[in-house]
Design a protein that fits this description.
- 49% of the residues lie in helices and 15% in strands.
- The protein is an alpha+beta fold.
- The chain has a domain of 64 residues: Arc Repressor Mutant, subunit A (Orthogonal Bundle), CATH 1.10.10.
- Strand 1 and strand 2 form a beta hairpin.
- It starts with 15 loop residues before the first strand and ends with a strand.
- Bound molecules: zinc ion.
- Zinc ion binds next to helix 1.
Length: 120
């Protein structure tokens, strides 16, 4: 038999039934993701996609706060954000990586110090 989605030849062992069709392992996983199964991974992917697609719109409240803080300040350092928004290094990193990933924020070295700036 073959997978209904990708057409790959699969044995009965590899075949999975889903809504009356037969799918291979890979396709079923993808369908499952879109259907909202495998929650942590699915929401992780969804979150990632959202950030990439719509820039600042897809950010969490805290990420927006960090972004706004960087935007408002002329030269913002990590320490400043940590102090002002009461974040730990790890917490700050968690906010910054999606911002940097979607190229809203970047780090700029100047006079031996690292500053965070928004990407215009
Ligand atoms: Zn398939």
């Amino acid at each position: 038999m073959e997978c209904h989605r990708c057409g790959r030849e699969i044995t009965e062992d590899e075949a999975y039934a889903h809504q009356g069709q037969v799918y291979c392992d890979d396709c079923l996983m993808e369908i499952g993701l879109h259907a909202g199964r495998c929650e942590p991974w699915a929401s992780y992917l969804a979150g990632k996609e959202r950030v990439g697609k719509s820039g600042a719109e897809g950010l969490s409240e805290l990420q927006k706060k960090v972004y706004q803080f960087i935007k408002d300040g002329e030269k913002t350092t990590r320490d400043e954000i940590k102090t002002r928004l009461e974040l730990s290094e790890v917490e700050l990193d968690a906010q910054l990586s999606p911002l940097m990933h979607s190229e809203l924020v970047k780090e700029r070295g100047e006079a031996g110090k690292l500053f965070l700036v928004t990407v215009a």
